Fold these 2 entries.
Entry 1:
Amino acid sequence: MSESITLNVQRTIRARPERLFEAWTTPQQLRKWWGPAHVECSDAAIDLRVGGHYHLDNRLPDGTVLRIEGEFERIEPPSELVYSWRLGGATTAERVTVRFEPCPQGTEVSIIHERIASPAARDEHEKGWVGCLDGLVTLLAA
Amino acid sequence: MARTKSNESDDPESQLDRVFHALADRTRRKLLAHLMLRPGTVSELAAPFEMSLPAVSKHIKVLESAGLVTRTVDGRLHRCSLHAGPLQHVAAWLDPYRVFWTDTLDALAQFVEEEEGS
């Protein structure tokens, strides 16, 4: 799909890369912290190997559960994770790269979210996805 | 100046489609990058590319149709300049993702930093 968008987000966190990698890849810990403020991670499962599947369930305040799932493409502890990302049963996968780089204050965490489908692509392939994104927008605006 | 063709709808979704279509090509992104620095004539814009003038002109037309470039005609010179307004729609469309990740990283920071502090 040619029409896609990449998003980059960075943040420095006062912890070592090893600690963050662990928090990002352990289901028990993910359930405690994953997601924006009003989202509860109601279930998480991770098969941490290349090709292994993961899912993260995001329970919205209205009770709707949005599943994010995909497969791992690269695993380089404690510095990098690359995985596919499908939201709410989407048929085409986006891709997320997470990097943990040591810095004087702790760790610089970088998210590269690629292959975000354009509205045109969504119209053709992922009608159901629009509702999910709208759900997130509503949620985040709350 | 030519207006958008009558078969091109002006509703926000169609406008966004045209902006994404315009951005989905590396030549057009490079043209925009040049225009961010300064306005230019079609031949100035074409200079860095191994492409015919008509081919570059066609790319500029796509950018115009997305509302990203405006063209003023001064005698024989066609001067192009950036019109960044429609890029805001792209930013707005991406915003939920940005907020999602910013918020999620906040939650991660809180989780691990509280633990380090205790």
Entry 2:
Amino acid sequence: MRNHTSPRLTRRHFLAASTAVSMATLASDLFCAPTASKTPSPDLEKLGAVALAEAKKLKATYADIRIVRLRGQNIGLRLSPDRASGKTLSVPNVSENSSFGFGIRVIVNGAWGFASSPLVTKEEIARVAGEAVVIAKANATIQPKPIQLAPVKAYRDRWETPHERDPFAVPIEEKLELLRKAAEEIKKNPKVFGSTAALNFRSEDKYFASTENSSIQQLILQIYGNLDASAVDRAAGVSRNRNYVPTQASAGWEYVPEMNLVENAQRIREEVVEHLTAPAVKPGRKDLILMPNHLMLTVHESVAHPTELDRSLGYEANYAGTSYITPATIGKRIASDHCTFIGDRTSPRALGTAAYDDDGVKCSDFTIIDKGIFRNFQTTREQAHLVGDKESHGCSQADSWATVPFQRMPNVYLKAGPSETTLESLIAGIDDGVLIDGRGSYSIDQQRYNFQFGGDAFWEIKGGKKGGMISQVAYQGRTPDFWQACDGTAGPAYWRQYGTTGDAKGEPTQINSISHGCSPTRFRQINVLVTD
Amino acid sequence: MFTREEAQKIARKVVGYSTFPECQVSVTASEQAYTRFANNGITTASLALRQNVSITVTREGKTGSYAADDLDDASLKDAVKKAEDLANLAPPNSERLPALGPQTYPRTFDLDDRTAKARAPEMIPHVKTIIDIAVKQKLVAAGLIERTHRVTGIANKTGLFGFHEAADSQLTTTVRMSDGSSSGWAGQPSTRIAEIDSAKLGAVAAEKCAKWKNPRKLDPGNYTVVLEPTAAADIVRLIEGGFSARNTDEGRTFLSKRGGGTLLGEKIFPEFVTLRSDPFDPRQPSSPWSGDLLPAKAVTWVDKGVVANLAYDRYWATKTGKEPTGGGGGRGGGGGAGGGGSWQMEGSEASLDSLIAGVERGLLITHFWYIRGVNQQTLQQTGLTRDGVFLIENGKITTPVMNFRFLESPVRLLKNTTKIGQAIRVRGLEGGMMIAPAIVATDFPLPSISDAI
């Protein structure tokens, strides 16, 4: 093992006071406003070339660099009563953030090395490439088998989330006004204690270059919204909430009016009050209708995670866990024939949608489960050969310039059922059941067998009809049994896509955003619990 | 990484750029090095350097915030202007308090230089030790060794300034049978990387793995449990959020009384339950200031079973005529108890073996996984046991048993606690840290079985 040079940025690096151009200006210049050009910025390509040349000089057999700028804008408003007067107090939150830097990944002596820095200059890129090589050489001392990458085509391309209006360019006043209207609408019922309304915008400018001759610039835009209503019954010692979380989307501002925030504020205002006095569920085996804004998380936890190949092969054993699905499961039934799941990083408006993954693989769709039969794992370039595949399914991703790309789930969706299956027809087939809407508590074991999910709101179903609201519902199940208990999913007219923005995996933990689409779906005789 | 003087220089520069009467700034630089391993080999390793400036400006009750990575002069000026532009557009904040004046912050601990600088040459031998233990027993090891080094400077226009430098490290490992039929875990966080004992951790994880093979299926139900310190902390630490004075006054926590009032001063737990947050404990130091920039202090939340304090941030303290609690750990008293990262439950002299010896029939639990809140008010949680559950019969461990799901609140768990052991610093799988003892508790609800290994 060679001696290490000082790994740390010098004070000059950190303070960066002597750079001729500010990093903030440099970031804006490099990722300038989208143009009609289909090729990456020449300045980004020049910086990328420095990393690749330096890595090759230091005997790397593979190298890539990602130069990334992340931006976020968070606008929120909370309305709650003043302690003394009861008058409604308004607490706004207006904040923005940005992050800019690069990460370099190399393979030397068959092992990975990675290093990153927030100082995007040619000199620093060359230095950090050397750091990555040092790390790879150290790792190679305990490397049972050399890394093997599946072949990939070379791409020179520029892509951005389809959008009409950049959400960051929309005046903040316009956003605040929309949130004020929604939050005040919720508070119109005096039985509502507090309300919150929020809009969050995220953008990721990303440049990728590799020694496989790829040079790719992408811009990903994401929008999230949220409304929440709370109600308190002090005499009974009970407090309850009801929220509205519109589909989280990769889109421009033109999507925001489709969220219908004010209309939904009126709905949750009434539902939170009903929730406060809703009777507790009677526990036992019941049929369930799971709405898309709830089922998306069940799909995420019990279908998308267990079909990650790194998990199945033990690479996540110390934290996220392994999987009940192994390579021997390929070709076997793990769900009913109503269940076809597709991995797809090309779904319009989905959070995980991009043109290329962080291995430089073009994003595509692939079947994970076909009518209940397990077909394909999610893979990256280094994993494909482990299950005999010749190509990666394009599932490599890092959450920042400072983190290592690894296998992350694509958007995973449940195909809609036949057109003639409706929400009403699914409900009509239930004698004793519960309809569950929205996200609640969710927990699943490290091999994705035993789960417990709650929801945000629940309605009783009796004799084929939807009744009043009930409360304190959770259901527990064993994943393969649960999906085999699925006996119908509504048709394409009911199919909706919802996202999750906090998917944690890896050590140190990385956070991913993806979407899962589905229609309202029925499950038979599931174990329903009453919670606190 | 910057020094105290450099942090002060940057912070003053930012404050000076602002034309607003109030400007608060936080500058941080951090360095993280880690080596990750799985299937008896290194999978990834990284050195990540980050820096950040976070600026909040206020004029006439209107506040804007901007955070960025860039610390050069032009970028800092740009960031201040962006924060001011945002504030100009924001509506007034009804709960806004004037900026805090200069404070004297306590020193919370001495930085360990070796931990702050550790890289692959310090980490790889630990990885090799664990992999060698696993290979020798035909087992498969996975894990992570990491260290972080972080400096933070805070300042505002009144002359307030604070500086904090911290380093921490941890090693965790999961050792599994090659056919996936058993699993064992061990972990150790330490502010001194030299104290990490990889040989012991590897041996403990391998022993758990060997002993847990072929677990027996027991019926779901309520069991007496012996929770190892990590398992105890996994659940007990989640009580923190319930101590918010504001939420309690508003009738929204387990400490709210029906019809109004709180349980402050009432005995709700057994006498041997004492919960504190202590940012000065050298085993688990945390930030010298709270979320609202008050000096951190040690606070007793439960004293010998009695609710001793509720957490007041500056706003709620002002509204109610109380003193703000000023807990450490970078969190205010508004949402949680304000001791984030420095919570501890007092222990006893009793060893884990002696706790096990006192149980007629019960379960020994290594730790939990995927713990999520089910009810915000009662703090009911659910999650699963992981990496070693064993039946105790007549004071002895007799049989490995399959994993369970639990459904319980830290409140009921502490009410049902009958004995406690020695307290040590632990870090849960999902990152929560606490100094906690092993505990013995009755009637712990385990409503279903998990097939997971």
